Input
Amino acid sequence: MARHGTGSRPTTIRELRQSEWAEAQTAARSIRDEMRENLLQKLERREPLFPGIVGYEDSVVPQLVNAVLSRHHFILLGLRGQAKSRILRSLVELLDEAVPVIAGCEINDNPFVPLCRACRDRVAAEGDATPVAWLPRERRFVEKLATPDVTVADLIGDVDPIRAARGGFDLSSELTIHYGLLPRANRGIFAINELPDLAGKIQVGLFNIMQEGDIQIKGYPIRLKLDVALVFSANPEDYTARGKIITPLKDRIGSEVRTHYPQSLAHGVAITAQEAWTRRHPNGRLLLPDFLQEVVEQIAFAARESKQVDRRSGVSQRLPISCLENVVSNAERRAIWNREAVITPRPADVYAALPAITGKLELEYEGEMKGGEAIARGLIGEAIGRVYSARLGGAPVKEVVVWFEAGGAVKIADTTPAAEALRLLRHVPGLIEMSALLGVPDQAEPGLLVAACELILEGLYVQQRIDRTEQRGFVGAPRTERKAGREDQSAPPAAGRRRNFN
Output
């Protein structure tokens, strides 16, 4: 379709008939045809289809493309935090920049084929002089969160007695209707989030519009061939927890697209880095170690695999996003307190981010008995262990372990300045040299060195090579102590207390 500049767009039906818009034969094109044609153009030009959506390139996106090319109404089915709403909102990019409507129409009537009674009467009276307005693509997307209290009047419409009285109309006249959200989404996309929460009788009204194109308001039928692309989202847990999608509506939904959590650590890290509010300071003041980003992401991966976490509820991608934001905030607090020029998060800051983790875990009975905080601490330890094994597996740690077993100890608080912490860590033979295996050379910024050394010590603790207590810190524990009761000892000290490695 030819695009019109703001100054060259037709302002009446007469001008519209003589315009490129009418000549391009888009006047009778439906919304789903429009989405299909624009998607085909994007595919031909190799343009990105869903910017900001990471990890769905080979799974969800091909199914979405097929659904749009097939002109289907479709539903996104997946657990919380899987970008379902973002995908639905990004469908706006498949619409034309703007479409002509009869000026002032409540339901965005096509100037050549008006639906509502008011516009039909207006065109009959004014003819080709009827004013035309242009509706931008952003206003052609209507979104509704389904809740049990949604009524037919909310979605479809109702009789407005005040309008009837003022106009002197009979209550059965179409001119008395106050249109709901669905008619107002005419010639656009109508999205309903959490569809199972919608009452069954309301769902019946949806499938009637999807196929037959007629509605009933207060007992009398109104023929409205609405041109709407209906898209939905739903959580599989809701089918039994709160409601269900009625069978006739499911039958009319053309495609069911299943979403999923990140399937690789790299995808998870990329999503969290994209969404988390970490770009707070200009000029590179924040140094965020990549291995710490992996630790934060591994917390979510470990939670999704844990038997103590409800897998049916899922672990939202918002968990690592919120966690990373808290990690940066704790490091920011330390840097301000110590007047440090560089903000560098370290493993101690992950433990300080417990409030961003516990509230996002739905626990099984066993997990409830242990408590959300204990489970979250265990997940952090498991995440650190995974990153340590992946990046430092087989590293020469004997010298470090022997030093601790000989009575060495390191006491560092999460508020300890980087320079002071590094001075203490340099007493451990071979520790600074090992940081190079994490991509941090011994001449790196002090905060980065501290973060790398802390990760190594935490990893050795998780592997039961050294011990850690709140009173003494990281120490060399007797071997009999390392083999028993470590799960209960895995909880780190509270923020601001000493973390001692022995």
User: Anything to note?
Assistant: The chain has three domains: 6-258, 265-381, 388-501. Residues 1-6, 480-498 have pLDDT under 50 and may be disordered.
